[in-house]
Amino acid sequence: MTLPEPVTQPEPAAVTDRLPDAALVRRPARVRLLWLLVVVVVLAALMVASVALGSRSVSWGDVWVALGGAEGSLEQAAVTKRIPRTLLAVVVGAALGLAGGVMQGVTRNPLADPGILGVNMGASLSVVTAVAFFGLTSPTGYVWVAMAGAAASAVFVYAIGSLGRGRATPLKLALAGAVTSAAFASLVSAVILPRNDISGSFRLWQIGGVGGASYERIGQILPFVAVGFAVCLLSARALNSLALGDELAAGLGERVAVIRATAALGAVVLCGAATAVAGPIGFVGLVVPHACRLLVGVDHRWLLPFSALVGAALLTAADVVGRVVARPEDIEVGIVTALIGAPFFIHIVRRQKVRDL
After folding, report:
1. pLDDT tens digits, one per residue of 254-267
2. Cα–chain center distance at 179
3. What parts of the sequence cross the membrane (predicted)?
4. Confidence tier at 328 by pLDDT (50, 70, 90)
5. What is the DSSP string of 197-236?
6. Contact 281, 334 (CB under 8 A)
7. Cα torsion angle, 337, 338, 342, 345, sign
8. Is this model's pTM higher than 0.90 or not?
9. Of the four listed, 32, 96, 224, 280, which is most buried by Cβ atoms within 10 Å?
10. Model confidence over 98-123: pLDDT tens digits?
11. Number of domains within the chain
12. How far apart are CA 190 and CA 145, in angstroms?
C-alpha cells in the first residue's frame, strides 16, 4: 500500500509577488565575501581612475608623485585638486547608498530613495532659504539646516502618502515625493533667481556635484556621516525583523516605532550631510540597494555595508564619466546619476503588480 504524496500548499500569490527576486536565493557567506572583495577592488580602481582622468591627461608617474604632496607641474597640481574631489564622491556616494537601503527597509518600499521621496530637495530648500533670508554662512550650519529640512520633508511626504484609503503604498509615496520634489525645486528657484549675490554659487549646487571639493568641507561633514553610518548599521538586525511585517516583528520583541524612528533618523542625517556639501543628487539610493540585493540577498547586515560601498563606487564612476565625456567641460554627477536612475525607476515601477502599488 502506497501512501499518497503530501500536498503542499503554495504560498499565496499576494505574498510571493511582493518578494524581490534576490530574496528567493540564499547567498552563502563565501559568495558574499567574494563579492565584497570584488566591490572593494572596483572602488579602489575607480578612485585611482578619478585621480588620473579628467580634462588634462596625467601620467601614472605624476599621480604617484602628486600623492606624495608634490606640485611641481600642472599635471601634479591637477592630481592634488582631484584627490579631495574623489574622497568627497566616495563619502557622499556611500552616504546616499546607505540611506537608500535604510529607507527601503524602513518603509518596505522598493521605490524609496532620498531623491524620489523629496528628502534631498527638502534639505536643499532649507539651506537656500537659510542662506537667502537668514544670512547662514557656516558650512556646519548648512548641515544642521539640511538635516532639519530633510526630516521635515520626509514626514510631510509620508503624511501625504498616507492620506485616503489604505496605507502609504509605494506608488502613493513615490507620487507624493515626486510632487513635493517638483514643488520644492520651484521654490528653490524662486528664492535664488532674484538674489544675484547667491545665484552664481548655488546654480551648480542645485544640480548636485562634487566639484570644488576640499579637505575642509569633507572634514566638516565627516562627524555627521560617521553618526549616520553608526545609527544605520546598528539598525540592520532590527530592519530584518521589520521586513517580516509589523505584527511579527512586535511578536519577536521588537519595538517597531522605535526601530523606524531610529533608522529613519540615521538616513536623514546622511541625506542632510550629503546634500549640504554636494547638493541634491538623486537616484543613487534607488539603484544601489536593488543592485546589492542581487549580490548578497536581503539580509540588512550585509545589504547596508554593501550599499555604502557600491554607492561610493557608483558616484565616483559617475564623476569620472562626467569629466571624460565632455572634455574640457564637466557634467555634474547629478545629471549622470539621473540618466542612469530614471530608466531604472521606470523598470522598477513596471515590475510591481498593480495590487501592490
Report:
1. 888 888 889 999 99
2. 19
3. 33-53, 83-103, 115-136, 142-161, 173-193, 218-236, 257-282, 302-321, 333-350
4. confident
5. HHHHHHHHHHH---TT--HHHHHHHHHHHHHHHHHHHHTH
6. yes
7. positive
8. no
9. 96
10. 999 999 998 888 878 888 888 888 99
11. 1
12. 19
